[in-house]
Amino acid sequence: MTTTITGVVTNGVVVPNTPLPEGAQVEIRLQPVRPEVPPELQEEFDDWERAGAGTVEMVERLAEELDVHEKRSDLAGAHSRGTGTPESISCPNEQD
What we know:
Layout (H helix, E strand, L loop, with lengths): L6 E4 L2 E4 L22 H13 L1 H28 L16
């Protein structure tokens, strides 16, 4: 049976969070070190986490809509300059 006990290294010595039984065989695995994050960036991360996935999905959807709008504007500009034809320009939300 395997039991996980966490701890920290202090002055080069492993200090477990709970006592270890005498004679226990142990294996030490180092956890990846979390990079330092500036407080203002951590605050932004925390805000996004609190906002939830719904907000992130809304931002992504709005970005996609903006991209579609920009493409339509580019097509309309090309058409007005005579580089497009009505048959080559389509707007999926427009009705016939």
